[in-house]
Design a protein that fits this description.
The chain has four domains: 7-254, Jelly Rolls (Sandwich); 281-464, no CATH class; 475-605, Cysteine proteinases (Cathepsin B, Chain A); 610-761, Jelly Rolls (Sandwich). The chain is 16% helix and 27% strand. The chain contains 13 helices and 36 strands. By secondary structure, it is of the alpha+beta class. The strands form eight sheets. Strands 1, 2, 4, 10, 11, 12 and 14 form a seven-stranded antiparallel beta sheet that branches. Strands 3, 5, 6, 7, 8, 9 and 13 form a seven-stranded antiparallel beta sheet that branches. A six-stranded antiparallel beta sheet has the order 22-27-23-24-25-26.
Length: 762
């Protein structure tokens, strides 16, 4: 499996229908946390695929189930369902169906589930990717998930009567599927372990996953394999008086006519997308700090005094994407030094520190690395005094352990680094550093971001808004001032008004100059192809002015009107803007008119309070990777309903919607393989539409629905749109898509609004 601790239940040639696998291993029976994995191939009208635990023992059991087309569902769908049995009846609760994904395509798929009885949570994965989540589940029998002696039936229902040897005259109900490779773990696997499991099992000799044209037909089924060499029996297990099925949607069974039951609706198998709990700042800080403390305790337990990060070691593997073919411009590092050694060589008698006084944007100095986009974001963040929220470690420590937090796919993750600094001779830091030579925070923050990307070289080139989003968890966007829409906004004055509002609301801004080599400087002093920070946007005495900072923090500055030595400055304007001319600090003012000429892009990171953010996680995978509206399959994409509630239901609501794709990024270190950069070559063109569909899933023909907004298709990590939605009792449908069918990736859909809303899958 590629994952330690697996207990094998079934590992042989593909098995048709199923088999009785005997009791669950005793080491798992008392566990509060388990994981389960099965490789399977199913038909659209299959019965139950796998029962884990035994109904006839009147215990808790988990079942992978399939719903057939005769139930009004277009294709077979697989889900995880909890069954609890009391003394007199079995109940299948609709809300306990964890996920629903069509896998009735005649190919092999791997379903993995993790169950945490302590938290009452279950998570489902399909082919190594997150598929569904549910909490608030009664998962325990007493103090554990299963009792000793609990048995496993794989791919077949247990019979109604069974003897002491697990045999009966009827061996259960056949399911139209193949199964193999069934495993259990006595713990909850991590997302990375699930991905590794899929990679390992999918590459096994018996797997047909790599052969998309090898479509399975039921006639291809091998004979049933079980311990008794018996034929599958046709037993009507469900005409029992003591069983009350709460809903006919489970397992494709027919509802008994003499019993009342719920009417099957199309959303019976609506996917349960994970809704992350919003942590407070203090909770995030304590969680990050606990990681650092654990590393420190392990260091002391080994009898060591200084930390060296083996995931990001002080060598060429951390410097370059490919150490065998490093770029010449970055071959400047001759040694790696600890801060104490750097201080002794360059600042004798001074002791290193993490911060030397309050952080200041002018402290940030770019080195030999082309990461001005990241350092511009750092300077912008420092300007509003938020950098201390990013760096978890509070001060210099002799162990050399520092923790930085970044927002990855909408969730805060800790990145721990050591304090080995790449240096040129003689002992000078090669990359970003602080103007206060003994101060470490700039170098360590850059190192942590390099680790997230996989190497320092991977930071060459990027987008300011991406870095701002990673640092703040905000919502990013880019305005191309050469676009037709931006030109209209410039002419009308709307864009200037927007910038004033953005600054007033505390949003973070950056700017990009026209394409160039990042070394060419125009005659006006603007570096071409370079990222700048926008520090202020002001209108004073009729003058529209922008204050800008070059992360090089040197004499390379704008030399036109409103530059430091410009005659435009009057005492009155200087007083209002608190302007003090300082040479060689990289900070300058320029007019809004000149800004439009010398800059191409404006980068924005919107910072919203956590209570304004409504987020769902989803993915385009298999059937649900439908592509854009140009394809007949576009309606198969995941769809989400946005509904205003309470007093806001009768009012127009202002919303800002973002769609973020999360493709595996090959250059990242092992701990961060879900991280995505806008310069990742694996990025897809993504977009979204917002429709009125009367609260139902959109039909195959998009023109049957009223469109109220959307985005263009852009191969960016994140796209966004902003609009005002009029009152709509049935809500609005948001459909995120890639541009072509079959492009598979996870995504995060977020809606930011002050209004009271719900955001749920359709």
């Amino acid at each position: 499996t590629g994952v330690t601790g697996a207990i094998c239940l079934l590992d042989d040639e593909p098995t048709a229908s199923g088999r009785h696998c005997g009791p669950i291993d005793s080491s798992l029976c008392q566990s509060q946390k388990v994981s389960f994995s099965i490789a399977l191939m199913i038909q659209p009208e299959s019965g139950p695929v796998c029962l884990l635990g035994t109904e006839f023992q009147k215990k808790v059991c988990w079942e992978i189930l399939v719903a057939g087309a005769e139930q009004g569902i277009e294709a077979g769908q697989v889900g995880l369902r909890l069954i609890t049995k009391g003394d007199r009846q079995t109940t299948v609760a609709k809300e306990w169906s964890i996920s629903a994904t069509s896998i009735a395509d005649g190919r092999w798929h791997i379903v993995t589930m993790t169950i945490d009885a302590d938290l009452g949570e279950a998570t489902c994965y399909l082919d190594g990717g997150f598929d569904g989540y549910q909490n608030g589940l009664p998962l325990c029998v007493g103090s554990s998930i299963w009792d000793h002696g609990t048995e496993v039936w794989v791919g077949v229902r247990p019979p109604t009567d069974i003897d002491a040897f697990g045999r009966s005259d009827s061996e259960g109900v056949e399911s139209k599927m193949h199964i193999m490779d069934v495993f259990l773990w006595g713990r909850c696997l991590s997302d990375d372990e699930v991905s590794a499991l899929y990679t390992s099992v999918a590459s096994a000799d018996l797997s047909a996953l790599d052969y998309p044209d090898d479509n399975w037909q039921w006639a291809d089924s091998p004979s049933r394999v079980d311990g008794w060499d018996s034929d599958p029996a046709d037993v009507d297990l469900y005409d029992r008086d003591d069983v009350d099925w709460d809903g006919q949607y489970s397992s494709g069974r027919k509802r008994r006519s003499e019993r009342d039951g719920m009417v099957l609706e199309m959303d019976s198998f609506s996917r349960k997308y994970r809704k992350p709990r919003i942590e407070t700042q203090e909770e995030v800080y304590q969680r990050m700090l606990s990681v650092e403390l654990a590393i420190k305790e392990a260091l002391f337990a080994r009898g060591e005094s200084c930390f060296t990060d083996q995931e990001f070691p002080p060598n060429d593997h951390s410097l370059f994407v490919d150490p065998e073919d490093p770029p010449a411009k970055l071959q400047v590092v001759s040694e790696w030094l600890r801060p104490g050694e750097i201080a002794r060589q360059n600042h004798p008698g001074c002791r290193p520190c993490l911060f030397s006084g309050p952080p200041n944007p002018s402290d940030v100095c770019q080195g030999r690395l082309g990461d001005c986009w990241f350092l511009s974001a750092v300077a912008v963040l420092t300007e509003v005094s938020r950098i201390s929220e990013v760096i978890i470690t509070q001060g210099y420590n002799e162990e050399g352990i520092y923790t930085v937090r970044f927002c990855v796919q909408g969730e805060w993750v800790p990145v721990v680094v050591d304090d080995w600094i790449p240096c040129e001779l003689p002992g000078k830091p090669a990359f970003a550093t602080s103007k206060k030579g003994i101060e470490l925070w700039v170098s360590l923050l850059e190192k942590a971001y390099a680790k997230l990307h996989g190497s320092y070289e991977a930071l060459e080139g990027g987008l300011v808004q991406d870095a701002l989003v990673d640092l703040t968890g905000g919502a990013g966007e880019e305005i191309d001032m050469r676009s037709g829409e931006a030109q209209l906004d410039l002419a009308s004055g709307r864009l200037w008004s927007q910038l004033l509002r953005f600054k007033q609301e505390g949003f973070l801004l950056g700017a990009g100059s026209p394409s160039g080599s990042d070394v060419h400087i125009s005659s006006s002093g603007i570096v071409q192809g370079h990222a700048y920070s926008i520090l202020q946007v002001r209108e004073v005495d009729g003058h529209k002015l922008v204050q800008i900072r070059n992360p090089w923090a040197n004499e390379v500055e704008w030399n036109g009107p409103w530059s430091d030595s410009s005659p435009e400055w009057t005492d009155r304007v200087k007083h209002k803007l608190k302007h003090v001319s300082q040479s060689k600090d990289g900070i300058f003012w320029m007019s809004w008119q000149d800004f439009q000429i010398h800059f191409r892009s404006i980068y924005i990171c919107r910072i919203y309070p956590s209570e304004m953010r409504h987020t769902v996680h989803g993915q385009w995978r298999g059937y649900s990777a439908g592509g854009c509206q140009d394809y007949d399959t576009w309606h198969q994409n995941p769809q989400f309903k946005l509904t205003a509630t309470g007093q806001d239901a009768s009012l127009p609501i202002h919303v800002f919607i973002t769609l973020t794709q999360g493709v595996g990024f090959s250059r990242t270190t092992a701990g961060f393989r879900n991280y995505q950069s806008s310069h990742d070559s694996l990025m897809f063109y993504i977009g979204m539409r917002i429709l009125k569909t009367r609260g139902r899933r959109a039909a195959y023909n998009i023109y049957l629905h009223e469109s109220v907004g959307g985005t263009d298709y852009v191969n960016s990590r994140e796209i966004s749109c902003e609009m005002v939605l009029e009152p709509e009792p049935k809500g609005y449908t948001i459909i995120p898509t890639t541009i072509h069918p079959g492009e598979e990736a996870p995504f995060v859909l977020s809606v930011f609004t002050k209004a009271s809303i719900t955001l749920e899958a359709l």
